[in-house]
Amino acid sequence: MKKSLTIFFSIIFMTHFFMLQAQHISQNTKNKTIQEISKNSTISKEIIQRGVTQVASLWNAQDGSENDFYEFCVANFSKTTEEKEQLFNRLATHFETIIGHNNRITINLLRPVHVVGYDPMPIDELFATYDVSAHFSDDMFANKIAFIVALNFPYFTLKEKEDNGKNWSDLHWGYVRLGDYFYSRVPANLQQNIAAATGNADSYIANYNIPMWLIADNNNNRYWTRGTKLISHWGLRDEIKAAYSDAKDGLMKQHLIYGVMKAIIDQSIPTEILEENEDYLWKPISNKAYLHDVVEIGTTPEPNTRYQHLLNIFKAISATDECYTGNSTYISRRFEGELEMRLADVEQLFISLMTAPQVKQVAEIITKRLGRKLQPFDIWYDGFKSRSSIDQEQLNADVYAKYPNVAAFQADLPNILIKLGFAPEKAHDICQYIQVDPSVGAGHAWGAEMKTDKSMLRTRFVNGMDYKGYNIGIHEFGHNVEQTISLHDVPNYFMKGVPNTAFTEALAFTFQQKDLDLLGYENTNELVNYLNTLDAFWGTIEIMGVSLVDIRVWQWMYQNPNADAAELKSAVINIAKEVWNQYFAPVFGIKDQTILAIYSHMISSSLYLSAYPIGLIIDFQIGNYLEGKNLGDEVCRMYAMGRLTPKLWMERAVGNQINTAELLASTQTAIERVQEAMKSAKKTKK
């Protein structure tokens, strides 16, 4: 998962709606101001009108009188294109300094809770919730820099960007992206509240590890060695995936882990187990606990902590709604502002795939390959991948041998890029800006925000790197490569980044899918490409279901703003069941499952999950486009375009819009080829 200076950029990306202010700048004053500026300006009158109007909407009584407003605008409007470009370049330099160093401060303050090797101290959690950028917007308005930006680089709506963006130069796009910065005024104290709630939730999730050696089946059989911990949800999910290659104990392990997941979701998980009390044995399938493996005893369930964190984030974020026109919700700001995709379009994209007939066809193939009825945890079926047939212990041993420590993985990053098709010089250039750290949590990538800084690659190292840590590490490396290219190679600083988080997830998925190739595992299966397509399709369906739960939970919280944690828990469980029953039960033949509510992102990364399925669709389209092309060259070209709108980025990158048609067509072909192979194999056996 990509991490960034979360709160700061939520300010930037959510500032797409005028703040409700006591308007005291009259129309006469605005007209007078526009007329005076126009006298000696070569800038279009439309831009002058837009800039003056926007500043007027943001100008409060404490900012000055109407005459102060008039004099400020006349004095600070750049009247020629040369003056405007000079101002833009100076702002780019100073913003990179401020944003870049604030980002570095935040990274350093979070190291004790994000990186292995620090003795935990209570003060660490306080620093983790401190938002160094909380006062940035307030300060910029107080010293009137924000007004200068809004005056000269006014905001353009998503529709305007989509309708006109294809005709804009890189410089004009930079102007437009600078115009996204100051379009509302959210007080610093409210931003700090969001940072505190998010920081607390992030710490809770990063340290949510399940001691698997204290878990047994109903016959007292244990399957994990002492000291084995799996973080929720990532480690638990990946253990389910790994278990498909374990013919002996795999299915039982999957049932046990699913029992753990259900207990996390409904908060019945014993706190004694979370505290690693060695006197307890927990049987998650029956959800019973035993003292010294013999005497059944009562336990203390987790007190809805999971949902209290989500509720705290909702309350902190929704408290800023009144700062936006029409009391817009975070949901609308997240999709139309951050993702620059309309929620209705995103939902339709998801539903078009989840209701396609190919879902049942792929499910039937999985059922035949497993030789049993599907279980809820088979949403993570991993048998299409090459690694599903590889002994996991051998795979872990190979990774341990190659990457015994952080330094070994760090040193090999340029070689990984060269194997992927990057020119050696470019590979080394990119990797000098990436630093590997051992992660406390599952792992993440945290991008730099100034060219003199490094992006952080965090993944798990436990006495070296195992396959799970490697697989996550390659995914996060994809993020880091995007973060580096889209900072250093874009036309200007304000175009840094990608259209939205789905586009960085797309590259991360592209890297992750090549993890075994990078280790030197060759796949001679002639069906490998078709199996990979089925795997991509099945994985996309799964995360779309999770994303719909995430969206509907936020919609429910807005409809029930006074709910407590217990009521929210009940709602999440019901919503998860509803989405399951609507889209998955007809395929799996099992109703009322809660598994779609397990994702940790729902708790600590507000409405982030939709970026994953969108990213998977984009990844598939990019993959199709890359066939026969050099991956390194194309990645460098695509991600150097900068933060255009999603539609325009895709048009320039692959010549098409974001769509599910390509994935559905390829999936249908893959279904037919795999079914033919299965029939042929059955005849051969006879």
Tally of DSSP β-strands: 9
* Rg: 26 Å
Question: Low-confidence segments, ≥5 residues, pLDDT <50?
Answer: 4-22
In angstroms, what separates the terminal alpha carbons?
47 Å
> What share of residues is helical?
55-70%
The total count of helices amounts to 31
Global mean pLDDT:
92
Biggest sheet record: 4 strands, mixed
The general outline is globular
Strand order of the biggest β-sheet: 1-8-9-7
Roughly what fraction of the amino acids lie in strands?
A: under 5%
Which structural class is indicated by helix and strand composition? Answer: mainly alpha
Descriptive notes:
This protein is mainly alpha-helical and 686 residues long. It has 31 helices and nine strands. The chain has helices spanning 6-14, 27-39, 45-58, 66-76, 81-114, 122-128, 136-142, 145-152, 158-164, 170-178, 188-206, 234-242, 250-265, 271-274, 305-318, 330-339, 343-354, 358-370, 392-402, 406-419, 424-431, 467-488, 501-512, 515-519, 528-559, 565-588, 601-604, 611-626, 631-638, 646-654, 661-685, and strands at 2-3, 209-211, 229-231, 280-283, 288-291, 295-297, 434-438, 443-446, 455-459. The strands form three sheets. Strands 1-8-9-7 form a four-stranded mixed β-sheet. A three-stranded antiparallel β-sheet has the order 4-5-6, with no helix packed on it. A two-stranded antiparallel sheet has the order 2-3. Helix 22 packs across helix 23. The protein is globular and about 85 Å long.
In short:
The chain has 686 residues and is mainly alpha-helical. The chain is 59% helix and 5% strand.
